[in-house]
Design a protein that fits this description.
- The protein contains one helix and five strands.
- By secondary structure, the chain is mainly beta.
- It is globular.
């Protein structure tokens, strides 16, 4: 047996977070607290993607937020798909789906499969002001 002491490597310590622990945003009025909106206005690429906090009021539904944000982006609300916390939500369920503090709402333009007389394509769903 050897009488030499065990070999120890250098000690590594983790520094505390620079800005303190990660917490939910402070809000005096939780009624105005928000959800995270992840908007994908281009159907196939991340071009124009934006992620931001959106304030919600008690009782606000997915239908209200999806319609308002689609119009703000210059998109036809009838041509968007929505996920709530990573789960696709059928359009018929939007009015009955309440939003909660901390939810993540993903809004995507549906890619057009084909466009013919009387059909709308996703590419033509943007309003003229959105293309400028």
């Amino acid at each position: 047996m050897s009488d030499s002491p065990p070999v120890q490597g250098p000690r590594t310590t983790l520094a505390p977070p620079v800005n303190g622990p990660v917490t939910a945003p402070a809000s005096r009025d939780r009624a105005h607290a928000g959800v995270t909106l992840d908007a994908w206005p281009h159907p196939l690429t991340s071009e124009g993607r934006e992620t931001r906090r959106v304030s919600i009021r008690p009782g606000e539904t997915l239908a209200g937020l999806a319609g308002a944000e689609a119009r703000r982006l210059g998109l036809d609300p009838a041509l968007v798909a929505v996920e709530l916390n990573g789960t696709p939500v059928p359009r018929a369920a939007w009015p009955a789906t309440p939003l909660r503090l901390g939810d993540i709402v993903t809004l995507r333009l549906i890619p057009a499969q084909r466009s013919g007389p009387g059909q709308r394509s996703a590419a033509s769903s943007r309003t003229p002001s959105a293309s400028a």
